[in-house]
Amino acid sequence: MDFVLHVFAEEHALKRNNTVQSRGQLTHKKDLGVYMKIFELAKTVNEKEFDPLLLTDSIPLDKIDALDEQHHTPLFHAISEGDLKKTKYLLKNNATLQTDKYTPFLLACFFGQLEIAQFLYQEGCLNERDIYQNTPLMNAAWNGHTEVVEWLLSLGAEINATNVHGDSALYIALRYKHPLTASLLLEQKNIDAYNENVLSYDPIVIALFHGYLDIAKGLYNDKVNLNKQYTENNTLLHICALNGDLTGTEWLLNRGANPHISNSQALTPLMMAAQYGHPTIVSKYLADKNYQKQAKRPYELELALVMAAAKGQGAVLDILISHIKDIPETSIHAALLGAVMNDRCDVIPKLLTINPSKAASYVKKHYHFGDYPYNQGHTLLHAAADKGYLALAQNLAHLGAKLDAKNDNKDTVLHYAVRSGNLDLVRWLCNQNLDVNLKNKQGNTPLHFAVEIKNPAIIRCLLLHGADHLIENKLQDTPEFLARTDKELHSCFEEFEKRDLKHFGLCEIHQAVTSKEDKALLQILPVVHDLKQRSDDGLTAIQVAAHMNNLNPLVILLLWEAKGDRKYAQDLAKFYMEKYDSHMTAYKSFAQSERAIRQFPEHRLNILLKLYQACETKQNQQGIPATEPVVEQCASVSASASGRKLRFFDSSESLASSESKEEELSENPVKTVA
After folding, report:
1. Which candidate among 53, 375, 598, 614 keeps its CA 20 to 30 Å from the CA of 345?
2. Are 167 and 197 spatial neighbours (Cβ–Cβ below 8 Å)?
3. How far is CA 287 from the centre of its chain?
4. Contact indicator for 265, 232 with CB cutoff of 8 Å
5. Is 651 left (phi over 0), alpha (psi -120 to 50) or beta?
6. Contact by Cβ (8 Å): 409, 374
7. What is the per-residue pLDDT for 66?
8. Which residues of 487-503 are buried (b: 16+ CB within 10 A; e: fewer)?
């Protein structure tokens, strides 16, 4: 512990204001250079005689008490650095420390400068005190200066004196981790090792806290109460559990310490060991045959399991799960909630192994928890989404959690993900083809929440995934209306309405399909032949067209992907359509496209095929591998593809004539089928 923390920090706290100058402070700028020279000489001169080098007749000796920036005088530096010659010279010329908080002798003991302390020693100073009632012996023990402590004891220093906090030299040595100094003090016949300080701490608790078991054993006798409760009612066993001290735990248990006492947080030592991840201590308690027989609290092990889960203590969980028989479902539920609320992904599979037959029901269950305005009926996914835990949400989904689950307020998982502000989580959920327009009981959609938290990136993501910005909540407010008070937020809606989507993370092929007209798409398709490209929000061009209900571009993309095969294109539309709920815009778009593909004019299809063949020929000439379908082929799609025969035209026809084909195609748009 720095001496500044010991005395000077408290001195600064007591200082009234900085405008008062102490005696001897510099008062004239012209003297500064001279006095700094004095400081340097006082710090550096060791072997040479000080008198002939330091002063001339023009420098008054009463200026040698000048304070530096830390409010220390040259005498302070001389003592703290152990420079006896400087100290002697400065004291000979009546130098002082410029404070009444401590004396030179106290200072020498604190810094462990034995030679200077011996020089300064005089009658009456052995047990002198600073303003906090610290003695020279306490100062020496503070920094573990065992040699100084031994010398002071030999002179008869009061070993059992205490400061204003009730701390003795022994307590101070243990508190600041100086076991050698503490052992020396304990060897003294007249020491009282059982004094409590003002916080009711005694030396034995400090010894065990720092793991000094040998010292604790030396302090122990029949009069010591091993079940004494300290701060927050923690016992010595609690302290060992907190620090993972197995040997200390064993020693206390062997001497009859009670392991069933609860602290102010209703935790027993075993529960604390589980919470802080000390499996060896947990095992020690469980191996004791009498432990459970003497237990006064029911469900102690189940509570320990819940705490270990909340802290992600996997090793402790393994021990508890293997030991506890018939763990109640309520304990499993609580453990799962604790793990989810604290993003402890790794322990969730462990908890689900407790009762494998009910694991799926645990994951899907609606719980009543959380500090929310509407906190009834949340699932584990709601909790993960509320915290913005993407990996955990994915893990829960893999374990069978329902992504479309609603709580009692009809909030979806997506509502909570949006409110967490985690864009990656929102993107992942949207790409699971969830309905982004579902309302809660207040009529708010996820887009309302995105405006509420002022997150432009999430607003853009939701809009591209089909969010309707004109849906009113029960206050008749639309997301677009709520965004009008914020220029940046409202610009998201303005750009989307105008299809000015340069800030929406779209590739060229995506931007081409945002218009209901297909001319831009037909110009870009021969250049960008790969439909697997995704936007920043994870959408393919086909999905963007579907979410925006742009039928013409959608039909052309499906036919392009199917290489002109109507049946395969219709199967693709069905494949996509089945991924969405029937009331969603994308579902309706794919349903319409299925019928529109059937009615697509034959001559336009022939032109599209020529464009495709020209692109493929050019790719083959350039050695570019053919692109794979943008979706995994379902059974019906594969069956269609296996039997179809593609119609190819004369390969000598080049892309140079593609402009006329594009124009002809764009002049005959697809008619929307009701």
Report:
1. 375
2. yes
3. 35
4. yes
5. alpha
6. yes
7. 79
8. eebbebbebbeeeebee
Nearby residues of 231 by Cβ (< 8 Å), 6 or more positions away: 199, 201
Residue 352: both structure tokens together: 């689900």
Q: Which two tokens stand for residue 435?
A: 């309905």
Nearest Cα neighbor of 462 from 426, 490, 488 is 426
Name the residue type at position 321: I
Between helix 390-398 and helix 423-430 the angle, nearest 10°, is 30
- How many whole angstroms separate alpha carbon 421 and alpha carbon 329? 33
The CA distances from residue 434 to 428, 437, 446, 556, in Å, are 10, 9, 11, 25
Predicted local confidence at residue 415, as pLDDT: 97
d(CA 137, CA 106) in angstroms, rounded, equals 9
Please state the φ and ψ torsions of residue 162, each to the nearest 5 degrees: -130, 155
Alpha-carbon distance of 558 to 563, in angstroms, equals 9
**Cα(first)–Cα(last) distance of the chain, in Å?**
82
Numbers of helices and strands, H then E, in the chain: 41, 0
Is 567 within 8 Å of 575 (Cβ atoms)? no
Q: Which residues of the chain have pLDDT under 50?
A: 1-30, 35, 38, 41-42, 45-60, 631-662, 670-674
Using CA atoms, how far apart are residues 612 and 647, in angstroms rounded to an integer? 11
Q: Give dist(CA 424, CA 93) in Å, integer.
A: 73
Assess contact for 180 and 144: CB atoms under 8 A: yes
**Structural domain span for residue 426:** 382-498
Residue that finishes a domain, picked among 472, 498, 524: 498
Report yes or no on 561 lying in a domain: yes
Q: Residue 342 in contact with residue 330, Cβ under 8 Å?
A: no
pLDDT for the residue numbered 124: 86
Structural tokens at position 14:
């007591």
Q: Whole-angstrom Cα distance, residue 74 to residue 95?
A: 8
DSSP reduced 3-state for 509: helix
Number of domains in the chain: 2
Q: Is residue 250 part of a domain?
A: no
Same domain, 466 and 585: no
- Whether 612 and 527 map to the same domain: the answer is yes
Asked if residue 23 belongs to a domain, the reply is no
Residues 398 and 534 in one domain: no
For residue 557, tell me if it sits in a domain: yes
* Residue found by looking up tokens 């100084």 in the block: 148
Q: Are residues 545 and 652 in the same domain?
A: yes
Please say whether the beta carbons of 46 and 83 come within 8 A. yes
Widest CA span of the chain, in angstroms? 118
3-state secondary structure of 642: helix
Last residue of a domain, one of 498, 525, 554: 498
| H/E segment holding residue 87 | helix 84-92
Distance CA 515, CA 522 (A): 12
